[in-house]
Design brief:
2 domains, about 5% strand, mainly alpha, Arc Repressor Mutant, subunit A, elongated
């Protein structure tokens, strides 16, 4: 008989503990959401501070940080244009380079693109509307590292120490 009372009390206690757990989970739910928002804000803040640090150290943020060894101004402008918007054809790239530096010939842009493709900085896609160009995945990922984007889960603070190697 006493054993039945103990079992019944134990079941009741278990029910109450489970009810407390559920109530606690409901009560802490808004705080978990708030913690997630605070973490996103911290991540954005780190990215902003990272950009400020790059501007302070290097005077700006340019593709040279992601692709060291770009040998000329036109190549830098090509990579910048493709980082802004990939999948461009030669005419679109030439127009973008002209807009950035004031002058660029299609022949020179084509030569630089061939060099960048040969080095693995730029890749080509043959589509139904012709040949398009974009930066390689490795360059895109390194650019994300430079900017401190958390999307790729890498560590921007290690980038510049190991960034002396050429891509390709």
């Amino acid at each position: 008989m006493a054993e039945d009372y103990v079992r019944r009390d134990l079941r009741e206690l278990r029910r109450q503990v489970e009810a407390l757990r559920e109530a606690l989970a409901r009560a802490t739910e808004p705080y978990a959401e708030l913690a997630g928002q605070i973490e996103r804000l911290r991540s954005l803040s780190r990215g902003y501070v990272r950009l400020l640090d790059l501007v302070q150290r290097y005077g700006g943020v340019s593709p040279d940080l992601a692709v060291p060894g770009l040998k000329d101004d036109i190549s830098r402008h090509i990579v910048s244009a493709l980082l802004d918007k990939g999948d461009r054809n030669i005419s679109q790239i030439t127009d973008a380079v002209k807009a950035r530096r004031g002058t660029a010939s299609r022949r020179i842009v084509r030569e630089r693109l061939e060099d960048l493709v040969g080095r693995g900085v730029v890749v080509t896609d043959d589509g139904s509307r012709g040949r398009t160009f974009r930066v390689s995945d490795g360059v895109r990922d390194r650019w994300s590292q430079v900017l401190g984007f958390p999307k790729y889960g890498d560590r921007p603070e290690n980038l510049l120490e190991s960034g002396d190697k050429d891509v390709g």
